[in-house]
Write a structure and sequence with these properties.
The chain is built from four helices and 15 strands.
Length: 248
Amino acid sequence: MLSKIISPGDRIELSKPVKASATGRTAEKNDVLGQEKRIYISQVYDILEDEQLKIAMPIVEGRVVPLPLHARYDACFYSSGGLYQAKLVITDRYKEDGLYILEAELTSELKKFQRRQYYRLEHTMDLEYKIVSEEEIMDVLEEPAKMEEITSYGMSEGIILDISGGGIRFTTKEELERKSEVLVNINIGIATEDICRLAATIISSSKVDNRERLYVNRAEFHNMKDATREKIIKYIFDMERRMRKRDN
């Protein structure tokens, strides 16, 4: 089954499994607490058997990271068929044809990726947004063509701080009410303009310390088509590659 979904060259993200605290909350990255979960980015080198594969050792800041044997990770695979997740354990590591390799075995079933956050790219870009009513949201969902009409006037300006396939963090000059609905225009074109018009729900809005009339907001996209989400994820990967080349 693995070889039917995952192919050599596919991107893979590895992160340590989430642990629950004494209060029952997880230690996964929490936007409110600002905690950071380390993610190792690499690629699939080869498929050995249905539950075994080779992975190129991740490289961080120009250095190969030899992940420890028997360490367990949550894995996210970016395949041609979409995003998938599974748990795996590192079973071996060595050098092959000049490449540092990890062997891993899946310890859970490979499932279609359901996490809403996805990979988050820290990148500033302009944003247009508009607070709308639930009725307007329903109109847009029933007739997507109305999205362009509604977002063609009365838009306010903001600045995106980071973006993922699941949502955005952005600044505004006004505090936005939690659970309010917004429509946003985001240009995800790199060489040419490519405007994405999206519906989102505000999940938090807080004033920036020592800055008058500046608020940081977090919003989750909803009712997004898979094709649009994949388009945003592709933009994120393309921008990440460009930023890495610029920094090298």
